[in-house]
Amino acid sequence: MRILVVEDDDRVARGLLTALRHAGYDVHRAATAADALAAPPADVVLLDLGLPDLDGLDVLRELRRRPGTAVIAVTARGEERERVLGLRAGADDYVVKPFGTAELLARIEAVLRRTRTARAAGDRGDRLTLGALTLDPATREALVDGTPVPLTRKEFDLLALLVHRAGTVVSRDLIVDQVWQAHWEAPSRTLDTHIAALRGKLGDAVRIETVRGVGYRVAAHS
Length: 222
Ligand code: CA
Fold this sequence. Notes:
single chain; alpha/beta; Rossmann fold; Arc Repressor Mutant, subunit A; 2 domains; elongated; binds calcium ion
């Protein structure tokens, strides 16, 4: 597993690299946003949001477009606003400085577990499954217990994005960015309308939870 540490503070970076290598990870460091964006793909990016050359949130949004890369945002103590913005911009998780090695390793493992589950689903012929629901990106077909559920193009894209990251919160910004290819301009009511339509069409097959102020999370009905 490859981890990219994006941290401009040499001392903090050295400590992180040592701890992560000790835990058995293949670790690389980027000291600037430019280095981070030019770095080879990593399974997890530990991203300090306070970088010298670019806004960390912009880096986060850019990294978010890369499939298979999980991002853990690192913020300074007490900066709750930054934390919320980080989650909204699509971070999978966050840690607050100063954090302990044990906490960091636990968060990395949790994030890796979630991405592995999503990837395993993607590897099985690109079909995504969640409980009774199956999505086939090749035919753009949604099935619940084997029965086709007619979805519009946007509904399918939205559901596929949520199912691909099942169990994690997908931010409204990320959804609007990926499904509507737009940023803030898309009326957020459009997204709410599509979520309501999906809930109606899928019934009890999956649960689409609203995470207030951040976005949505999908889970199989247990
Ligand atoms: Ca910094």
